[in-house]
Sequence to fold (494 residues):
Amino acid sequence: MRLVACALLALASAVPALAQSRDSATVAPVLSLQDAITIARRNNPLFLQTRSARERAGAALRSAYGVLLPDVSAGYSNSYREGRPQFFGGQAFGSTSDVISSDAQLNVRASFSGQNLMAPKAQRANLDAAESDVTNAEAVLRFAVIGQYLNVLAAQARAQLNDTLLASAQAQLDLSRARAAVGAATTLDVRRAEVQVGQAQVAVLRERNNIETEKLRLFQQLGVEQPTSVRLTTELPVAEPTLNLQDLLASARRQNPALSAAKSRESAAGVGVRQARSAYLPTLSLQTGLSGFTSQERDIESSINQQRASSLQSLSSCLGTDSLRRNAGLPSIANSCSSRFSFTDADAALMRRENSKFPFDFTRDPITFSASLSIPIFNGFQREQRMQEAEATRNDARYNVRAQELRITADVTSGYRNLMTAYQTVQIQTQNSQAAREALALAQERFRVGANTFVDLVQARADFERAESDRINAIYEFHRAYAALENAVGRPLR
Fold:
């Protein structure tokens, strides 16, 4: 529905005036050629796919620059261990209390190689190529829309001709019936006139249907649904082209979108070769990190009691040693024992505070920093394979540029000649149509006065129909030749 709304808005912008109908409704929407091209640029699915490719190329360029920035990662984890001792060699180790712990780390790593350093330039070349592809796709879309727009106009011109022929056949039928009524014509003439009217009606029906079919194909090119009763308003005059072949060839070599896209691809392929060669350069890696941990016992009181019991045992042992020293006449160390092995409430409070660090009161680990330089020596000919593939891609791009140059020369030259031939054909077919029209008028007048047979009149009408059809076809072949030449050159020429 969004696409339909865009189409209707674009069509509404081209309506020059509003007319009041019997039901007070607005006039039918109109569509000019420029409006059709604008709508197609916004909504044609295939063209939008090309624009999506450009967006992907832009994202790849940003990613290539991002590779030159360091990788930064952070981590955080929690763990729990049940308060049961572990035994090694018959000895018990570990806390008897449940323990919860947390770890956090921040790592920074950067790597610089020839391929990484060349990646932004390579992706920039790919983005330029994608931009050229979009320009080329826009030119192709413009040519397709113009061609289908001309098909609708040609169908409308043929329908107008058939309407004229039907009116002429109906008039001849009325005249034949009037003449038969007075005995100046036969019943055979009336029946032949009726056949002519029936054939003209069939031709009108077919051409009206052809108009709607061509309109459907036009809006298919535009990428939107067809509004009801849309009218095409652009009128393309037939004027003698004032173009110079050499100027057209020079302009095509500078501006043709297909050639520009091929050259952009060649440039991108050349950067790809240099990037493949950079695989022989060394790689520098830098890394640093910051980490910390916490550990907390769920039952700190048991550890405090163990510490208090251990201190009492050590104090008792120290005092026993002091008693032996006094018996031996040595100085007493009782005060030293009390100061060294006493466990006070302050010590217990300190243990409680030291234990209350979970989950974010980390103990920092030492900062680490490392740098390494690696030099590639041999990797199973993978670098050589990439080199050959990159060079083959570059050669293919060069061949494509040369093929595009040859194609442009041929297309512009043939398009110029076709245009000149088409213009001369229009002039000749216009003269033929005028002569056939005069012959038909003369045959009608002679039949009216009885100086001509109905067969002669039918032949004159057939000659006029063929001559006028040829004139219409010649006119739109002229416009198609103009569009083909514009497409070959790469810019509008009128």
Observations:
- The first strand starts at residue 30 and ends at 31.
- Confidence is low (pLDDT under 50) at residues 1-25.
- The longest helix spans residues 114-181.
